[in-house]
Description:
Strand content: 15-25%
CATH class of the largest domain: Alpha Beta
CATH architecture of the largest domain: Alpha-Beta Horseshoe
CATH topology of the largest domain: pyruvate-formate lyase- activating enzyme
Largest sheet: 9 strands, mixed
Distance between the termini: 17 Å
Number of domains: 2
CATH superfamily of the largest domain: tm_1862 like domain
Strand order of the largest sheet: 9-10-8-7-6-5-4-1-11
Shape: globular
Amino acid sequence: MFxxxxxxxxxxxxxxxxxxxKCPYCDFNxxxxxxxxxxxxxxxxxxxxxxQELPAVWGRTVQxxxxxxxTPSLFSxxxxxxxxxxxxxxxxxxxxxxxxxxTNPGSAEQEKFAAYRQAGVNRLxxxxxxxxxxxxxxxxxxxxxxxxxxxxxxxxxxxxxxxNLDLMFGLPQQSVAxxxxxxxxxxxxxxxxxxxxxxxxxxNTLFYTRPPAxxxxxxxxxxxxxxxxxxxxxxxxxxxxxxxxxxxxHCRHNFNYWKFGDYIGIGAGAHGKITAAAGGVxxxxxxxxxxxxxxxSAGTRQCIDGxxxxxxxxxxxxxxxxxxxxxxxxxxxxxxxxxxxxxxxxLPIIQQAQSDGLLTLDGDRVQHTDQGWQYLNNLLERFLx
Length: 385
């Protein structure tokens, strides 16, 4: 039985499952558009879905909203405005609410930036992935480097002083010099936040079935070390495995995930985590993945594709999996508060990792060593149920 003094902070994730084209490396729940987007129908389905979630979060304030995909910016600003208006009517929202919308650098989407801002979106996350046209083509992206640069300028002109750029390294046939050049060019665009991460070949993707030729481990290691030095030099602090931000510009929504906060998940395939503090239970749910099945069932129990209550050992692992991605580590008091468990559940693992030089324990505070950060996956395996 979990014992909570209060539930953790609450966020809202909204999934948009359509893309102009499916990228060969993407393992997210996304579907290439086959016909006209069902904008009105999908917004109405999202609001029905949200209403079904309300009893579990009644009275709790939402700290952040994240619209991800897929490509949410395929939807018109009017649809986003209608959706956000419906959310405001149904949920208490924090006065300093962060509302992020993911977008791609296509010119049609850039034309909507000012209207998204007017609808209440105050943060953009732009998936540029590279500023090298050869690499963009290899990744199956439908934009070019010119459009990517223009997207960053358009975001700023539309009033977004807080936007993220997504950039990958370790791309097919990419040299260390090209990876460094890519990163320097993105830094010149002066985003407040950078998601900079290595391309991985995920199951159920075209790249996994037909792997491209990627840089070897030594080259990728060099790319990462050079890149981290370059980012630090230009005032970007690494606060998570692949997240770098200027002062005060970390992504509050993702930060809540990593701190093991709660989140409502609405939309096709969306996952949610809700702590029922009074009942001493942590619930996980996930919705129907295919847009057609989601649209047909949104707002009913049939929309829920699966759900489960976390056990104590699963909760411990999920907490470690998220919190140890943050550079700041965590306190044992935070573990007890977020998990509803006594510190004795996690203390033996921490003490063993401390003996092996992977973690430090200073009073209440748990922190990675340099070795623990470098071999994070090995560290996390120690917390497996």
